[in-house]
Amino acid sequence: MRFFFLIVFFLFLKYSFAQDSTYTRNVVNTLTSKELWGRGYTKDGMKKAAEYLAVEYQKIGLLPMGNSYPQPFNFPVNTFPGKMMVAINGQKLVPGKDFIVNNESPGIKQTTRLTPIDSLNYQATPSLNVSLKDKLTWSVATEVGEVTTIQLNKKNFTAIPKKISVDIENKFIPNFEAANVCGLVKGTKFPDSILIITAHYDHLGGMGADTFFPGANDNAAGVATLLSLAKYYAAHPQPYSIGFICFAAEEAGLLGSRYFVENPLVPLSNIKFLLNLDLVGTGEAGMTVVNASVYPKAFAMLNAINNKNLYISKINPRGKAANSDHYFFTEKGVPAFFIYTQGGPSAYHDVFDKPETLPLTKYKDLFKLIVGFNQKLME
Fold first, then answer.
1. Do the record's keywords include Secreted (predicted)?
2. CATH superfamily ID and name for 20-78+174-377
């Protein structure tokens, strides 16, 4: 009879992980949907994403970290809500695939000839430049420059660009409204000691009226993993409190996490460790831990758990880096790791970072590694 119950228990565990995997995939699909429009600055994409996350927090049973789940703030941003037309040698190009406009560019409407500067760069007019690139990588700007720069996908051009027509609309928003989304599972024994799990939910939004950047690996995967962990900890409260923060405006320069550190909803001294998840949708080639050399004892602990259970093929150590939302916490003395995985599709900051090509290869193993690491931190 005891053996029977053990079999049933392990089958239940297996089924639970299958259910969590389904939930994780559904979260990724929602966050990368056309409705949320790249979780950015046009068509209310970021606002809709924040509202979705607040609803999920409530369903899971998280307590607000402050008076409510959202922590509002604002910042300036350059957006491209409408016209996005570029034609080279009379042929209209596809935004995101054939070209991108530099994020700090002003709007422009011109038709002119192109003068080569070298084999990759062309001068149109003093207010318009063109460059050929091996990869089109977009980002977010918090100011507007004086020159519009168009980047062309080098692989899509066999003929020399000689003439360009552009009609691009930009809109600068000096006080774009955003919000971090913050929740908490209260600790059973030491509620003032807090472990934090973070992931930024914003992405690049849209470029024009018809093109958006899905951001599956960056960072729908991180948010989906965070929500799955929130479900687990809500069902299994720990001695320490476990906090969950989905940051806005990471892509605009880590603005959401900086705002939280400057306006903390919990005392920073109460945070015993922070794990930041960004770009965790792959893993077949291992993972990297930023701040590994800053906190060698914690990194050794993480490695010991991984070596014992063979979760991840390789954990690469990396030093301090201001490359994600862990950074400002570390600067204020909060111990933190930034985890990202390797392998799989190479799409990054482009229109090809899609949910259908996101493998989530090591989701279950990363989940177990994080739970095991947090357990050790509480011993």
1. no
2. Zn peptidases (3.40.630.10)
Q: Report the pLDDT value the prediction gives residue 5, as an integer from 0 to 100.
A: 40
DSSP of 30-80, one letter per residue?
A: HHTSGGGGGGSSSTTHHHHHHHHHHHHHHHHTPEESSSSSEEEEEEEEEE-
Cα distances (Å, whole numbers) of residue 150 to 147, 158, 212 = 10, 17, 17
Structure tokens at 167: 């009609």
Spell out the domain ranges in the chain: 20-78+174-377, 83-168
d(CA 370, CA 379): 15
d(CA 78, CA 163): 27
Rounded to 10 deg, the angle between the 363-377 and 2-31 helix axes is 110
pLDDT one-digit tens code per residue, 226-243: 999 999 999 999 999 999
- C-alpha span between 56 and 244 (Å, rounded): 12
CA-based angle 90:92:93, to the nearest 5?
130
Work out whether strand 128-133 and strand 148-153 pair parallel, antiparallel, or are unpaired. Answer: parallel
